[in-house]
Amino acid sequence: MTIDALTADGAVYFDGRSSRKRYVTLRFAEGVELVEQEAVTATWPYADIRRVDGADGVLRIRCTSALPLARVEVRDTAAQNEIAARCASLNDGRGPPQTGRIVGWSLAAICSIVTMVIFVVPLIADRMAPFIPRSFENRIGGTVDKQVRSMFGGRECRNPAGHAALTMLVGKLSRAGGIDVPLQAVVLSSAIPNAFALPGNHIYVLNGILQKAQTPDEVAGILAHELGHVKHRDTMRRMIQTGGTSFLIGLLFGDVSGAGAVIFAGRSMLDASYSREAEHNADAFAIDVMHKLGRSPLPMGNLLFRITGSQGSRSYTILASHPVTEARLAEMRKEDRPATGAELLTAEQWHALKTICVDAALHAPPQHSAPLPQSSSGGDETR
C-alpha cells in the first residue's frame, strides 16, 4: 500500500540543521520518503525510525541514520497507522511518557522541598546562627524593628519615669546574665500580653503584659527569659528557620534591608514558636538570673499561667511564641526559693513602669530608644 496524498499540513519536517518548519508529503516505498515540492529531500529506512514524545494526536518520529535533531511530525491518522505497521522498531528505546517524567520530577521536587523545610533548614539555622556577626544581625534588626513597630501602630510608650524603670530592670538582669551586647528595650502600646526578642538585641514589651503582671518579679522573669533567647542567638535561628531558603539566599547576597528581610520579620516571626530545647534553655537562663539576684523564678510561671487561662485567642500573645507546658511550670515551682536579694524595683518605680503608657507621649513615627548599659565584660562582635 502506498500513501501519497498527505497535504502540506499533514507532515512537518525539521531537518536538524535549523528550526525552520518544512512541509512535506510522505510517500511509502523502500522507506519513508519525504517529498518537498515534488522532490525527495530524504528517505528514512523503516528499520531506523523511532517514536519520540510529541503532542496529543501527533506522531513525532526520528531516524537513527539521519541527523540527531531531525524530526517529522505526522498528524494524519492514516499515515500514523501506516508508519506503525511498517516500522517494527518504532517504539524501541522509548522511555516513559513525558507526562510520567514530569510527574516523577514534580514529586521529587516536592520531597526535596519538604526535606529542606523539615530537616535541612533547621539544621543549617542551628549551626549558622552562632557565627553570624553581631554587626550583620544588627542590620537585620534595624529592618525588623521598623516592621514590628508598624504592625503595632508605631506607638512607643516613652514616659520618662517608666522608661527609666525599664532600663534599670533590664540592666540588672543583663548584668546578672553576663550579656555583654547593647540592648534596645521598649514598651509598645498594645493590649496584647506579650514580650519578645528579635534579631539585633531588640526586646519588645507590650503594655498588655504589664497590665497582667502583679509584681516586678513577674515582669523580671519574663524579661530574663527573653534575654536568654538573646544570649543563645535563638532569634537568629528562628529567623533563618522562618525565612527558610529565601533568607539563606538573601544572607549569601547580603540582602538584609530589602524585600527578603521584611518577609521574615512579619507575622510569621511573631507567631512562630521556639523549639522545645530553646524554651528550656531560656527558662534555665531566667531561673539562674533570678537566683543570682536573690529572687524566685516562680512569679514568671504565675504570670504565664494567668495569661493561659484568660486568652481566648493566642495570636501574638506570649503563648503563641512561648507555649506554656506543665513541665515548664513544674520546673519553676521546683526552683522556687525564698527571696534573699533586694526588690528589683521600688514601689514608685514599679508604678511608673505599670503606667508607662497611661500618660506617656506616644511617638509616631517612634524614636529608637538608647542602648541599655553593657556589662563590664565588653562586647564580642561574633558571638
Explain how this protein is built.
47% of the residues lie in helices and 14% in strands. It is α+β, with helices and mostly antiparallel strands. The protein folds into 3 domains: 8-86, Pleckstrin-homology domain (PH domain)/Phosphotyrosine-binding domain (PTB) (PH-domain like), CATH 2.30.29.30; 97-131; 132-363, no CATH class. It has a 5-stranded antiparallel beta sheet with strand order 2-1-8-7-6. A hairpin with a 2-residue loop joins strand 3 and strand 4 (31-36). It is rod-shaped. 37% of the residues are buried. The model is unreliable at 1-8, 310-316 and 360-383 (pLDDT under 50).
Please give a handful of descriptors for the protein shown.
3 domains; 14% strand; PH-domain like; 383 residues; 13 strands; disordered N terminus; disordered C terminus; alpha+beta
Mean pLDDT level: 79
Order of helices and strands: EEEEEEEEHHHEHEEEHHHHHHHHHHE
The gross shape turns out to be rod-shaped
Give the strand line-up of the largest sheet. 2-1-8-7-6
Q: Give the distance, in angstroms, between the N- and C-terminal Cα atoms.
A: 83 Å
Strand composition percent:
5-15%
